[in-house]
Design brief:
Blueprint: H1 5-11, H2 16-50, H3 54-82, H4 84-103, H5 108-136, H6 142-168, H7 174-194, H8 199-205, H9 210-221, H10 234-237, H11 250-280, H12 285-310, H13 315-333, H14 340-368, H15 374-401, H16 406-438
Helix pairs in contact: 2-3, 2-5, 2-6, 2-7, 2-11, 2-12, 3-4, 3-5, 3-15, 4-5, 4-7, 5-6, 5-15, 6-7, 6-12, 6-14, 8-9, 11-12, 11-14, 11-15, 11-16, 12-14, 13-14, 13-16, 14-15
Length: 439
């Protein structure tokens, strides 16, 4: 008699293998958090060494976002075709090469190109890990596990930023990328030996040897041996990664992507410009990194608390709420402060709510799309949405260069979260309308 591995994993307790897999995805997202922000930690030193203008710096700060967008779409789709594990391995190699090359860049053009390469790996990694954690968690803990994976990002930025601030005190900016390359290399054997291919993915795709692979993984998990896999229906056999644009999913795809695009533009205004803003206020570069660390500490706390609350309350409405609160928090940060402690508190408060919104969006994607398009949907949302992260530092950079003050720029950039919240309100109306139509 056939058994469905997806149901077995959903209904069973979390095994040590699953917990370890989730823990590694948290670490991988932490690595992403540091790799993305490595350019922010290094930016004051780059400005000092190369004497570039704010507008040009904004472009450099955005380059890995361009790579992330391309990587999320292309490699996210690849994760639904060739598997989660192999895609993660490929992304780690791309990130390692990109970080090593960035440490040896000799011009703005070279550094920009190498950051695009790094971004390719980061974008694909985000799509693959989001699908991986959702599929290794059981039904009871899935929402919390995805939230914990998402807060790996600010944790990585916090821990990595603390280390980077110490390294920058006595070294050139290149050491930030060198440190990132070393940590990236350490994750390659961890993924290879400790994360098996997702049984849910193998059940959906049923490639050659799928049953043997699932039973091998289930033996490690302590689950019963399976004699055969469920027979795929004609509809399941016709599944395609393009199904995110099917009539059943297209409205969800568009509205969640719009929400991610707008909110991430607000989110990255804080993450990318904090170090430069702090230095412009007269503080030294190592102190600037410390303020960015506090923004990410706030983000980690906000994301963790969000995950706990999402186990009891509506995920969508919680996400809408933190997005709306993000707006005044960004504006308050834009007031500018003469005391470093006050500035750090404002940055941490902004990070608390903006990152909680990001966590909510990741969880919405992971729980709203079926297995066969989960990585593709994540990749599309992140890929297109990262255009918001790409344009955010550029827009802010040229607004600063034109003479606009921090408060004005902050008010403008905060509007992204406001629009994102309304997009998710519209998503609820579309879902309710669809439910009524089929009732």
């Amino acid at each position: 008699m056939s058994q469905d591995p997806r149901k077995i994993m959903n209904d069973s307790s979390m095994s040590a293998v699953q917990i370890i897999a989730v823990a590694i995805t948290i670490g991988l997202n932490a690595l992403d958090g540091f790799d993305v922000l490595s350019i922010s930690f290094a930016s004051p030193g780059i400005v000092a060494d190369w004497g570039i203008q704010r507008g040009a710096l904004g472009i450099v700060l955005s380059m890995e976002m361009l790579g992330m967008g391309i990587g999320a779409i292309t490699l996210g789709g690849l994760a639904d075709k060739m598997g989660r594990r192999h895609t993660i391995m490929l992304c780690l190699v791309l990130m390692l090469i990109g970080m090593l090359l960035s440490a040896n860049a000799n011009s703005i053009i070279e550094l920009s190109l190498f950051r695009v390469l790094t971004g390719l790996g980061i974008g694909g990694m985000l799509a693959a890990t989001n699908a991986t954690v959702a599929e290794f968690a059981n039904a009871k803990w899935r929402t919390l596990c995805v939230s914990l994976m998402a807060i790996g990002y600010p944790i990585g930025a916090t821990v990595g930023g603390t280390i980077a601030s110490g390294l920058l005190a006595n070294n050139d900016w290149q050491i930030v990328f060198q440190f990132g390359a070393i940590v990236t290399a350490c994750f390659i054997p961890l993924v290879w030996f400790l994360i098996p291919e997702s049984p849910s993915y193998l059940t959906d795709k049923q490639p050659k040897g799928a049953l043997e692979s699932i039973n091998k993984t289930f033996k490690r998990m302590g689950h019963p041996h399976i004699e055969s896999l469920p027979v795929l229906t004609p509809a399941e056999q016709a599944y395609s990664v393009s199904d995110i644009f099917s009539p059943a999913l297209i409205q969800k795809t568009i509205l969640i992507t719009l929400a991610y695009f707008m909110h991430i533009a607000t989110f990255y205004f804080i993450l990318k410009w904090v170090p430069v803003i702090v230095v412009d206020m007269g503080f030294n570069p190592s102190t600037a990194g410390g303020v960015l660390v506090w923004a990410n500490i706030g983000g980690a706390i906000g994301g963790g608390l969000f995950g706990l609350l999402a186990m009891r309350y509506s995920l969508r409405w919680l996400t809408i709420g933190v997005m709306f609160i993000s707006v005044p928090m960004i504006i308050i940060f834009g007031n500018g402060y003469t005391e470093l402690s006050t500035l750090a508190i404002a940055a941490a408060s902004a990070g608390f709510f903006t990152n909680a919104g990001v966590v909510g969006l990741y969880t919405l994607v992971a729980t709203s799309f079926p297995t066969h398009v989960r990585a593709t949907a994540t990749g599309f949302v992140i890929g297109v949405g990262r255009a918001g992260a790409f344009v955010s530092p550029i827009i802010a950079g040229y607004m600063f260069q034109s003479g606009l003050g921090l408060q004005t720029v902050a008010i403008f950039m905060a509007c992204g979260s406001l629009i994102a919240g309304f997009a998710l309100i519209m998503l609820g109306r579309k879902l309710n309308a669809a439910s009524s139509a089929t009732a």
